[in-house]
Amino acid sequence: xxxxxxxxxxVLACSVTVFARIDANSPVEKxxxxxxxxxxxxxxxxxxxxxxxGGEILLKPDNLTALLLxxxxxxxxxxxxxxxIENEIYKKDENRxxxxxxxxxxxxxxxxxxxxxxxxxxxxxxxxxxxxxxxERAWTMLTALSITGATTMSLKLIVNDHTxxxxxxxxxxxxxxxxxxxxSVLDEFYGPWVGIPAYIGAGCVGxxxxxxxxxxxxxxxxGAVLGWIVGHGVAGKGKLEIAGFEIVPYMNEFGGxxxxxxxxx
Length: 265
Description:
The chain is mainly alpha-helical.
């Protein structure tokens, strides 16, 4: 789990403490009072929204198929490929691609705790400034991160396996899932000019998790797919996309199956 999990708990605990004291019937005023009014309405329905919207997104046939394919790939990789791939990627400190400062920065910036905290600041500034567009976008990001976090932690507790360096709760990678959720939401909001760099950054976070031995490749693969599905499902039109290309499952006449990228021109 690492520091990110405990940062997330800290952010959520502080949020509960603050929002428990908010009166939902208080009048709308400028500044901090506006933030309190917005938060009182939004955060009281967050658990219900996470449960309802998360179920709708994850159980949608196309999304469920993609998750099952990614889960099956994880099983196959864990049996046949994870150890071989990890032997090539997992290196001692002096042989790693990313310098120590960059590696530590990606560990922090790619963690769920940072994502929740940054989104909370985004939401607070927008609500205090009565910026409805950015408040709604921050609220959408928070919803997506909450669904991803709840799903990831549930799967970790169910599977309860170990990382290459012996840490518990390996599958799936929470850093990767959260980073790809952020990238997918940003892609929906701002298009490929922001989405593609965000995906590259999320990919670097995933590689970092393998290079340091914090996760198996199968942990990263499933985390990335989960993040894509939730991010686009919450912020988009319910379909899985990468930079404008829709991800669709397919099966050929020879019995092979997989996913494809489709875009209408």
